Amino acid sequence: xxxxxxxxxxxxxxxxxxxxxxxxxxxxxxxxxxxxxxxxxxxxxxxxxxxxxxxxxxxxxxxxxxxxxxxxxxxxxxxxxxxxxxxxxxxxxxxxxxxxxxxxxxxxxxxxxxxxxxxxxxxxxxxxxxxxxxxxxxxxxxxxxxxxxxxxxx
Length: 154
Ligand SMILES: [Zn+2]
Fold this sequence. Notes:
It is a single chain. The protein is built from four helices and five strands. By secondary structure, it is an alpha+beta fold. It has one domain. Strands 1-2-3-5-4 form a five-stranded mixed beta sheet, with helices on one face. A hairpin with a 2-residue loop joins β1 and β2. α1 packs parallel to α2, α2 packs across α3 and α3 runs antiparallel to α4. The longest helix is centred in the first third of the chain and has 20 residues. The chain is globular. Zinc ion binds next to α2 and α3.
């Protein structure tokens, strides 16, 4: 049913979307060969708004890949540094609904934007989480203006 839009399995990696970045999660992460259906559905629903936000941030196609384990550095997902032109994001299968999946992807796109700007932000975690909440609740324009403001202060 969702074959054309959902996750596809390639060499044990469940992946959605295609990045033009020269990076494959297999370089650093083992695959989650059997991600939870709940997380897969949540991310499938979160993908279009995340891709839309990425476009507004001046980025290309995003790709999502489930990896083994509960997460990376206390995150349920991780943006791969250096892929901001076409962000690669790896995922644990730990989100439970669409809103959580959207906020997670928006947060990671915040990291991607900071990376693209070459900025060093002291409290980057708090800033990108605020960015994600704003993008979710108040729209992309306001969130991007906020993040631009923080980056400009550095
Ligand atoms: Zn983070």
